[in-house]
Structure formats: C-alpha cells, structure tokens
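Help!! Second protein's tokens look totally different from the first
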Amino acid sequence: MRNRLPPLNPLRAFEAAARRGSVVGAADELNVTASAVSHQIRVLESTLGIQLFVRSKARVKLTPAGEALLEPVKSAFDSIASAVLKLDLPTMAGDLVVSTPLLFTSRWLARHIGDFFQQYPGINLKIIPSNDDREVYSHDVDLCVRYGEGRWRDRDVQLICHPTLFPVVSPALMNGPGAIREVRDLAGRTLFCEHAGSWMRWLAQASADKLDDIRILEIGNAHIGIEAALHGQGVALGDSFSVRDDLIDGTLIRPFDVTVPARHAYYQIARPELVESPLVSAFSHWMHTKLQ
C-alpha cells in the first residue's frame, strides 16, 4: 500500500488550501508562493487522476472527491503533529501561563481544559482571563488568545477563527404561546449583546431594523448575555465560536439562518522566540486541534 501514497508536499498543500479556503492563505501558512501551492495541488490531482478543487479567483471549493480526501489527510497530519510533540516527554513539563478573553475562557476553555491536562499532566498551566494587551507584551505570559484586528507589533500572530454572529435562545422560548419563530417575534424581547451596533447590523441583514419595540440591552460582556439567554431571559447575539458547544448540546437554539461576520477575529499571540518552544507548541496544537 505504501507505494500508492502520494508525495507529502502535495498533500500538505492540498490540506492547507482546503482548510484555509484559498491558495493564498495556504501559501502564507506554508511560507511558499501561491504559484508553488497551485503547482503542488496540480501534481496531486495528476497523481490521483481526479480533480480536488473548483477554482475561482479568490477562493477554492472542494469537489466531492476533495471532500472525501480532506478528513483522512487532515487526521493524518494531526496524528503526526501530536506524535512529534510527545516524542520528548521530559520537555512536556513545566510552567505555562496563558491569557485568554473571558468569553473564550468561560464558553470554551473551561469545558475542554480537562482534555489538555489528561494529555499533558506534567504541564503546570495558569490561565489569566483577560483581553488586555498588557499581557501580550508581558514577559510573565507565554501565550495569549485575543479578539481583535490581528495587529500586534513584534509578536507572532496566528489566526484561530473569524466567527459569525447570530441570535440564540433557550429552547423554552421556542415553544408555546409567544414562541420565537420569525424575525418579527423579536419585537418586545430583550436582546442581549456587548455592543448594540452588532445587533443592529444583524437586524439590518435580516431586514428587521425597522421593527417596532426593539429593545437592546448592552450587558457589558457577551458571556453575560449568553448566560442570560441560557436562563430564558431573552435573546443573545451569540457567535459561532462561543456558542458552538451549546448548540451541539441543545442548551441553546439558533432560530434563524441569517448571520453577519464579527467585526474582529480570535488570534493566538506569542513572542517570536516562544512560538516553537515545547510547552507553547503543545498548548497551541491542542487548542487548534480541539477547535477544528
């Protein structure tokens, strides 16, 4: 079977382009030119005798054959990366300080951190819930996750995800008299958010910005709004990252398909000299793997 395996570099180019959705994004990640990535993908398609992408000017879309190939290739690269990280087990011990925003900490990290401890029991992890850039430039912090524009000078910055925004409600508000079934049912409800402008952007996208009795409550932190929605107090403007587990569990429901992109994105930030360090690499790889 081994002699039927395609060469590694074309597989890497294919996986990166498929995951990033563009040849340019894959080129940035792999530190090569876009033409080199395109060439490697053509080599892979020629080797396999199938077309993997439908190409456009800015984006690439997987063909059915490409979709069938992506998951096993991605899983294989993840397994290799995990194995490499664990080769030198003595280095997987020590202190690691990570700063993450409150929303990221409470809505995602708190739900999954046990898996990290199980994989890396020798790492003494300290989490600082914050979105303050002072930690980005503090030598007492090894790695930061930040929600922002992606510009932090003198730091290695890697995109984690760019979420989309949409309303979420408790299942209790989806049943019985007064249930939320249409966008106009939002009239008179308390609409929770961190900044009212985000709700207004969503309402405009849903052609509902002219509804009477729109009541938006800026509640200081998106985490608090989501908690209020969980307890049936109103409708929160959630994002695709922070409510993903709630939607899977069924504790929150997304009543409408309309979405708007968040103003900013989540990024991983570290001092350049720490990016490849064993402890930072271990946490970074674990986080990106769990989020995929």
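Here's the second one for comparison:
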Amino acid sequence: MIALSFDTEEFDVPKEQGVDYDHIRQGMEVSRFGITRILDCLKENGVRATFFCTANFVENAPDIIQRIMQEGHEVACHGCDHWEPKATDFELSKLRVEKVAGREVYGYRQPRMFPVDEKEIKRMGYRYNSSLNPAFIPGRYMHLTTPRTCFMKDGVLQIPASVTPWLRIPLFWLALHNFPEWLYHRLVMRTLRHDGYFNTYFHPWEFYELKEHPEFRIPFIIKRNSGREMLCRLDRFIKMLKKNNCEFITYNELAERKIK
C-alpha cells in the first residue's frame, strides 16, 4: 500500500530565510502553480493521494480544492496559517476546510510536523494524525525513540512518515530531491516490504522553478532538483511503484484498514 501526501500550504520558505515576503499573496501563486503540476501528474498516472491543506490555502483556492476532490483525492487539515501555527488550529482549520470542501475531514497534520495535543485531535473528531517524522534530522526532528509505524494514542491513529527500518533514514521530500533515484527507490521498496505499507509527503512549492528565483534565498538541498526536475522524479517514482504492482490509497483508507 502506498499513501502519497502533499502538504498544501502557502509558500513561506523565503520568510524562514529572513526574506521580506508576502506568504499569502505571493506564496499562494507559487503553491497554485505547483499543485497544478502535481494533480496533472497524478491524473496521468491514475493514482490517488491525500492533500493536507491549510485553511489559508483552501479559502484562497477553492477551485483547486474542488479539483482535488473531483479527481478522487482526499482533503485533510494542515492548520490555518502555515507560518504561524496556533493551539486553536485543530478546531478552526477543520471548520474552515470543511466549509469550503463541503464534506467531513478525517485527518490532521501539524505545520512542520510540530507536536500536537492528541486529546484535542480526538475531541474534534479526527480519525488520524500524521504529525510525526520518526527520524533524527538536526535542527528539525529528534524522534529516534518514537514508534516508526502506525500506532494508537489517545484514541487517534498515528501515521508517522515512513523511514527505513534500521537506521531510520528519512524518505520524505528532501530525500527524493537529494538521493540518487536508484537509491531512493531501493530504500522505499525495502521499507515497503518490511512494513507492508509506505507513506511520504511533498509540497507544491517543490515543483516550482525555485532555482530561477535567487531572491528567495532557498538552501541548495531544497532547490536542488526542484521544479520540472522534481516533477519528473515524482513521475518516475510513481511509475516504479506501479510497475511493482503497488496499490495507492488515501490516508483515510489506510487508517480504516489499520483501525479494524
């Protein structure tokens, strides 16, 4: 089982680099461009995914949200404002996203995968939480002792991002940017055989031509293989998985199978 996901947010990486940048107006333009490329790729390959959306993105791109749902993908919550996550986001993002989507939302992922209050997640009616990257990434994540596969906590299914079984090598978006593709594919297949499923996440702005915008001050490991190069990498990755007869499912479908 393959669960692809995309953190669908307003592009705010330049602000992390100290750039005076309007992450709502300018950031939405970047993300809209990237999400269109992603949706076209998924449609061409006939696979479905889960889109963890900020309330800001949903309210500024209702047409994109409709396309996501019409093409069989899942919409989940990713807080309200990606740049300034707040404790009330669990509740407000669900209300705001469901209002635009017109359907119930079952999953949550905190911006930057920061910790969440599981009791609040449960209270708001979420079925699963995917806010954990069980790896050691200096300056970002220190989770070497947490479970690396699905587990229940306070009545909510936790769906950590997939990492390799032994050294916990992270297999998220930065890995596909920077690893040789043959190595990334091999590590994914090894993890899939070990765990019985694989899930990972990307962002729409990775598929924008970041290298053409030095004013963003994007670090090399992020802008490397971005834009069309990243689109081709995603396409080849999906095709490799399909060649190996992998089934693509949404996170909610994964949760339903794990909770039974």
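Reply: Different proteins will give different token patterns, so don't panic. The radius of gyration is 17 Å.
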